[in-house]
Design a protein that fits this description.
Radius of gyration: 19 Å
Structural class: mainly alpha
Helix content: over 70%
Order of helices and strands: HHHHHHHHHHHHHH
Oligomer: single chain
CATH topology: Farnesyl Diphosphate Synthase
CATH class: Mainly Alpha
Number of helices: 14
CATH architecture: Orthogonal Bundle
Number of domains: 1
Amino acid sequence: MSNTRLRLWWLAARPKTLPAAAAPVVIGTSMAYANGGFHLLSAIAALFGALFIQIGTNLANDYFDFKKGSDRDDRLGPTRVTQAGLISPQSVKKLTIGAFSLAFLFGIFLVFRAGMPIVVIGLSSILFGVLYTGGKYPIGYIGLGEVFVLIFFGPVAVGGTYYVQTLTISNNVLIAGLIPGLLSSAILVVNNLRDIESDTISGKKTLAVRFGIAFSKLQFSLFVIGSAMVPLYLYLNSENSFHLIPLLILIPALFVVKNIYTKTGRELNNLLAQTGKLLFVYSILFAIGWVL
């Protein structure tokens, strides 16, 4: 296999989005460790399962957005390999199936470990990854994208990671899931804000299209600042001072929020990357606070 083809496949996987898949696993695993339930093989399987679901979703978006005519030459976002003619639609479809199949294989181990709840979580995650842009009424086209991302990249991902290791669940774990859920939703808000003009032409009814630029900027601000407040709630329930370490994220979070009001057009691609980095750093700070 040529290096050029590998680079194209890597481009299609959209590696800059992968921290959004890894962060919930880091958070859920750190809480499992803190509660004496860390299970290494389950943590690894959860991580690779989450990464391949994210990659599969990215590839499905690339394929279905092209087929629906939503990706055009005037798009402002990062390169989509199908629209750019770099990889054929049929090949992207096969890559999508391959990524979801790998996620399914890692899920088999987790099902043996934790049972039926993981069947529901895994299959629904794959299903909604396809339906985000596929099907007759795609989730991302009718203004439900933020809801989907908040749930599946948040409490579902963190709670699932914690459950496969400890075989238990708690309210605090689900509350902690709001951290990656809100920040992943914030990433989507930036994406929809950047594409508001092209999405309007394409008939995509995202929340940005429905309610406008000012709404999206406020939505982004509330998501980012709201996520930064979650450790305070968890500290009040635990009275463990180390659980306040993630509050350090407030400093870069304020700079990220400032940028939503000053950046436009292609400049918002940098804000996408910044928000993704914020999420990953946040998950590391959270893990440090819970492992100590």
